[in-house]
Amino acid sequence: MDADDRSEELERLFRLTFRRVMAYCLRRTGETAAHDVVAEVYAVAWRRRRHVPSDDEEAVLWLLGIARRVLANQARGHRRWARLLLRVAQRADPPHTGHPQHDEGEDLAAALAQASAADRELLRLAYWDDLSRQDIATVLGISVGAVDTRLHRARQRLRVRLDSASRSQDPAAKREKDHAER
Length: 182
Fold this sequence. Notes:
Blueprint: H1 3-26, H2 31-47, H3 56-91, H4 104-114, H5 117-128, H6 133-140, H7 144-169, H8 171-181
Helix pairs in contact: 1-2, 1-3, 2-3, 4-7, 5-7, 6-7
């Protein structure tokens, strides 16, 4: 079977299986995430089109297996994100806003967004991807000592941003700052 035949076969399989794969994903995650998962399933199927079973029912099961693995990867990603938030929050001084409705996760997301691309990458490798210092050094092509230094500095800069965000949310601190500026 040449490349054109495989492409046509995959298109036929897509039309045949899309609803079933989408329903499988919708039962396991939200609508937006399900669309992302289904897109990834068919991207994997396209890359592995030489391995698609010839029997339609076996092909559906093969696609559902891919969907299961993509959903598992997605769940691991969400768990890594939660661990990242916890680790960064534990390393930074906790903000004392006095506002129970204040969302500290928003502060963290804003502080990370303000960080340099290099700091974000380093923090993600350390806390999101949960890599060791040696692994980070290998990925970035730097020494372990450089990783230690850069990570320490990135956490310090993040802590300053988080402290600044928490002070801007604290009305007493804001009044003190306004009073000091007069």
